[in-house]
Amino acid sequence: MSVLNKLTAISPVDGRYRNATEKLADYFSEAALIKYRVLVEIEYFIALCELPLPQLQGFDKALYPALREIYTNFREEDAQRIKDIEKTTNHDVKAVEYFIKEKLDVLKLEEQKEFIHFGLTSQDINNTAIPYSVKDAMNECLYPVLEEVVNKLSALATEWKDVSMLARTHGQPASPTRLGKEINVFVARLNNQIGQLKAVPYGAKFGGATGNMNAHHVAYPQIDWLAFANGFVNQSLGLDRSYPTTQIEHYDNFAAYCDALKRINTILIDLDRDIWTYVSMDYFKQKIKAGEIGSSAMPHKVNPIDFENSEGNLGVANALFEHLSAKLPISRLQRDLTDSTVLRNVGVPLAHSLIAYKSLLKGLDKLILNKEAFEKDLDNNWAVVAEALQTVLRREGYPKPYEALKELTRTNTHITKESIAAFIDTLNVSDAIKKELKNITPSNYTGI
What we know:
By secondary structure, this protein is mainly α. The protein is built from 19 helices and 6 strands. Helix 3 packs across helix 6.
């Protein structure tokens, strides 16, 4: 069997694009999932000591750092030990429990170790470990790069705020705009949707075999287990406890999270396609590095590959987000296992998204403004000032101004500065109004 590396990996996420996604292995690899499970189990045990359970009364708090080191110093060898235990248990979460008990034996806590995983089912661990890992990945990997994208676009919007540009609606020349404003549209859209994404709670299930804390209640009916569970999940883990639940998290918030990310990615697909089109229109040139080849057949070409790469990866990510948000909230009765295998893929659309964001940034850094192309396009489309002329004429009470401009623009195959000026001279208006109309050009008719 070949060794798994960038050349032998099946997925491009772990192969070709490993450099862009490697950090995500800290949150979504098998070893990472195991580590987060260990974290939840240890923090749960500490919470029971803090409660305290009668059998954990007087537990030496000085041991808490040593307990937490089991996950803070978690190594690949530890993950492998748990996988070895799983070969016997044939149960991944039970293997984590046995691994921690081994560690507690080393700490001389044999009498207390049976309170590891006390009263819990596997999903109490999975449905807290996974949202915990997603929250960490977003804060430490995805949000910083998204912020880079927004900041870069904001900087370009400022840099290009005075660049007049012919707009196109339905692919046809339309009232002029400014390049900076068009980029700023994407900044506003992204900021709105990132705000909505950040407002989605990281939902977590924690309530025993069928969500009712049956085992906890039967063993210690005098304890307010509902308050304990809320405090543990909401305060200790910093998640948002769903209640009531079945055996598993109902994933409604997770579906909202996927849909919010999908909207962000859709906005970026829109941006990728717009920039791609501007490159094809020669509005932008692209910086190239010495030795780089744009086309294997055509030496002159510099293809907008970064925007194409970004668009493609965003599409893959969104397809997976679509499936996650549609599938995960559905489970037969109190629980079936379809969520388990699907949820293991949560890192994959995030990886494709991360690849896309980085490709987009790379592409934006390569853009060179070709101001002459903007100016030439505007100068070739004087017909777009017709809207301005007829609106001023309406203001002045001129009879049927729309029809007059319509006749001019539709009967002349090419409207020029000169033909517009000649038309203005035929109008029955004052010289001051004629001067005002002649001062309107495609370059300055850009609105607010």
